[in-house]
Amino acid sequence: MRLIIFMAFLSVIFYPYPKIAMWLGFSFAAYSAIANDSIQTIGTFIASNEDRKWWHLWLFIGVIFVGTVYYSWTTYGGDVSYQRLSSKGFSESPTEFHFLQVVAPLILLVLTRLRMPVSTTFMLLSVFSTTSSGILNVTLKSLTGYGLSFVVAILVWFLLAKFIERLVKGQPHPYWRVAQWGISGALWAMWIQHDAANIAIYLNRSLGLWEFVAFTGFIFFGLGLLFYLRGDKIQKIVKEKSNVQDVRSASVIDLTYALILFVFKEWSTIPMSTTWVFLGLLGGRELAIQLSKHSKTNRTMSKTIQLIFRDIGFATIGLLISVALAAAINPGLRDSIMGFFK
User: Fold this and answer.
1) What single DSSP character describes residue 19?
2) Are the beta carbons of 242 and 108 closer than 8 angstroms?
3) Which terminus of the chain, N or C, has less C-beta within 10 A?
């Protein structure tokens, strides 16, 4: 907590200086976003590979990160967000910063320490949105993602429950480890294509060579710290779900999640909350396990429903906080939101 207070103090001092504030905000956003969103992409990867050395996992995920953002940087003229920031309300490079824009990642970091799976897309992008339609579009796409992933998860785990239950019995074949690493790598690359925008929002829309090196280098070593801490406290959100530490079950989760993200990536360039998609996937999966006579779990139906609504509640809290921050920063946006409720 002392470190967070110190970073907030730096925000107060440097937010009036755009060239410093953009890199300060970026550094806060980079770690807080990845620390919170680790449960979606690399949470099951960490949980099912606890027997492996942390730096093996770090180098694998880190190299994929560098390769993925390098492709976007070279293909889209210095843009590392896969054109996610080309949407209305986010396309302009920041020329000045509000104090709340720089401190927003620290609020996200506090919520992460409280083990709340908050949407980084809402928390970080909304404070830069200049229009209410921008926030509305992101919200609608994210809620659609939650509903779709919830339904898909129920269908996959309910219809294939007997097969999956039989699949995870006994010791996994070594090939499963190879398959899971491949699927996790693909999921991680797909997540970057969606959520790199949440971090790059603080920087110029087109990065020069040394800016790109700073961007990738900071996140690469930040990932190393995250793997050293084994996902930190937010990892509990994953571990409390059923069978996620089994490499085979983790592979099914990651493959389903990657396919859903791919669909939304092809659908439009509007940013979306991958946190809501992931929570929908886990919630639908837990419910399907309860409903299926072929699946075994020590959790009651009431406890499962409590977990689902708890996760939704935490994500909703993050949404409300992010909208409040955006309204506090942008008077025009505040008036637009107030007019919507009149």
Assistant:
1) H
2) no
3) C
Q: Give the chain's end-to-end CA distance (angstroms, integer).
A: 40
Alpha helix ranges (H) inside the chain: 2-14, 18-41, 43-47, 54-75, 99-113, 120, 132-159, 161-167, 174-200, 209-228, 236-239, 247-267, 274-291, 301-329, 331-341
Q: Are 238 and 44 in contact (CB under 8 A)?
A: yes
**Is residue 126 within 8 Å of 199, Cβ to Cβ?**
no
Cβ atoms within 10 Å of 57's Cβ, excluding its own: 23
Question: What does the pLDDT read at residue 242?
Answer: 47
Q: Nearest Cα to 40, choosing from 238, 248, 227?
A: 238
Contacts of 120 by beta carbon, 8 Å cutoff, 6+ apart = 29, 32, 33, 36, 37, 108, 195, 198, 273, 275
**What predicted TM-score, i.e. pTM, was given to this entire model?**
0.78
User: Which position has the token pair 């770090």?
Assistant: 58
Q: Which of 309, 334, 277 is nearest to 119 (CA)?
A: 277
